[in-house]
Amino acid sequence: MTHPLRRHIEEIISLTDEEFDFILSHFTAIKKRKHQYLVQEGDIVNKEYWIINGCIKSYFVDYLGKEHILQFAMEHWWITDYESFVKQTKSKISIDCIEDCELLYISFENRDKLTSQMHKMERFWAKKSKMGRIALQNRILCLLKNSTKENYNLLLEQYPKLFQRVPKKMIAAYLGVSRETLSRLKA
């Protein structure tokens, strides 16, 4: 059976067995339990994570103690605090596991080595980065121009399984509304 990371990478570039083995040698497999952190605000982030199994959230807590969810990430998604990862500065967000998770991570150093030694992976990450920017732009546009009801329906349409995996209070925090407002939207 083909490794899930290989299938993921081969959606963009083709690989030989030797190339994939070389790529995989730069990653480390880990397991995290529900509620365990991958990143805590203030950390200097040295890892980018790829999710084999599980669901993760990235978020920040404002000065009033209110949680604001920036992203949910599920199987075959990448997640980290990219500003901290790239600039090696203190993280402005936290990332933790909503479910028990199986992950692969690549360190900043290993990613740098891998991309300099294998230009295919440089192309892969360039494409993934572009797709991430598009997704972020679309999220911002939706927040600015759509009603909460439209954003709720769009999230439900795009990620229906998320609603079975994530508590309603987290969906509300992602949409920037109260649980009560979310309940009214569902009615």
From TrEMBL:
Stored Gene3D superfamilies: Jelly Rolls
Residues covered by the Cyclic nucleotide-binding domain: 33-110
Signal sequence region: none
Origin superkingdom: Bacteria
Record-linked InterPro entries: cNMP-bd_dom, cNMP-bd_dom_sf, RmlC-like_jellyroll
The protein's name: Crp/Fnr family transcriptional regulator
Organism this protein belongs to: Allotamlana fucoidanivorans
Lineage, uppermost ranks: Bacteria, Pseudomonadati, Bacteroidota, Flavobacteriia, Flavobacteriales
